[in-house]
Amino acid sequence: MSPKQLGSQQFQIAPSLLASDLSCLKEEVIALEKAGADVLHFDIMDGHFVPNITFGPTVLESVRKHTQLPFDAHLMISDADQYLDEFARVGCNWLSVHVEACPHIQRTLTRIRDLGMKAGVAINPGTSLFSLESVVKHCDFILVMSVNPGFGGQKFIAPMIDRVRELKKNLSGTNVKIQMDGGIKLENIAEVAGAGVDIAVVGTGLFSSKDYSSQISKLRSAAGNR
C-alpha cells in the first residue's frame, strides 16, 4: 500500500473515480497514481438510499492489481452490513457508511475494523452532528458531505465549512480524520483545508483537467501544501 496512509499529517487528495473516464478505468487509475493522488475514492450507490446506481465490489477488484494506492469506498447504500466482507475481500482499505442508513452503526463500524479496513462515518448536510457523538471512538474518519449524495458534479454547499469547524473542535484530542466530499475545486479547497479537512474528495475539480499531475499539484498548493 502507498506510504500515504490515513494517519498521515499531510493534506490528502482523493480523486473521485465517478468523475473519471469510466470507459478506461484501468488507465485512469494508473494515471492518477503517477500524478500523485493519495487515495482513490469509489462512490457506491444503490438506487435506493440515493437515486443513482454506480460501482460495486467487482469494479474495485478489477483495478486493484493495477495500483498500490489505498481504495476508499463510500457506501451510499441501504444495507451496508451484508457487503462489508465483500469489499474487504476485493482489497478495499477504507470504508465509510452513512449514519442515516445504518441502524446499528457501532456494530457496523466494529465489523469494518475487524475486517482490517479503516472505518468511516458519512453524514449528510441535513443531519445533525449530534448523531456522531456516540460513534466517534468507533471510527477512523468522518466523511462530511458538502452536497446531498446521489449525483456527481453538484455545487458545493458553503455552510458545510462551518460544520467542519465545529466538528474539528468536537474531535479535539482524538486521531479521527475529517474527509469532505462534494463540489471541491481550486476555488474553495483553501477554505476547505483551512477549516480542518484532512482528506478532500475531488471529482470534476480534478477530472476537468487533462493534466492530472498539474491539477493535483495546484490543488495541493492551494490547500497550503499541508
3D architecture notes:
With 226 residues, the chain is α/β, with parallel strands linked by helices. The protein has a single domain, classed as TIM Barrel (Alpha-Beta Barrel). 30% of the residues lie in helices and 18% in strands. The protein contains eight helices and eight strands. It has an eight-stranded parallel sheet. Helix 1 (25-35) crosses helix 8. It starts with 11 loop residues before the first strand and ends with a helix.
Average pLDDT, all residues: 93
SS content category: alpha/beta
Main pleated sheet: 8 strands, parallel
CATH class: Alpha Beta
Number of domains: 1
CATH topology call: TIM Barrel
Please name the fourth-level CATH homologous superfamily.
Aldolase class I
Structural shape: globular
